[in-house]
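Example record for the data management plan.
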Amino acid sequence: MIKAKYITTLAMICISTGLFAKTTKMETPAPVIDFQLPMFGKDGYKTWDLRGKEGFFKDENHIDIHGMFLKIYSGNEGCELDTTIESLQATLKPKENKAFGDDLIFVSGKNFNIIGKGWQWNGLNKKIAIKKDARVTFNQRLVSLAKD
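Corresponding structural encoding:
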């Protein structure tokens, strides 16, 4: 009898814990200050590393960020820094590997810098779209195509 009561109680705890886990939301009433969120690819190599002054976790796939600094890596064994993205305000969708914002964006790569306003980043295809006031600066010398 005691054994049956023990098993029933244990089963009820497991069931209620499972139900609770499915209904809980990852939301913070106050911002998380000076946070870091790394992301790794299927092979275990770092693909990007997000830092923010403040993060508001709305749910597991929605993070509003103040003071975003995103480092994008090669995603291979060398783990080389490919691009950095900075913006005062951003929204990250980590499960979709996307981010977007209406504020200014500063993008720096190996041989270029971009500044603009209103943007979207897609980490799956490694593309950044800037909606307006985009300015690109290349940091390498252009080779002349004209014959002398």
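Summary line stored alongside the record: Residues 1-24 have pLDDT under 50 and may be disordered.
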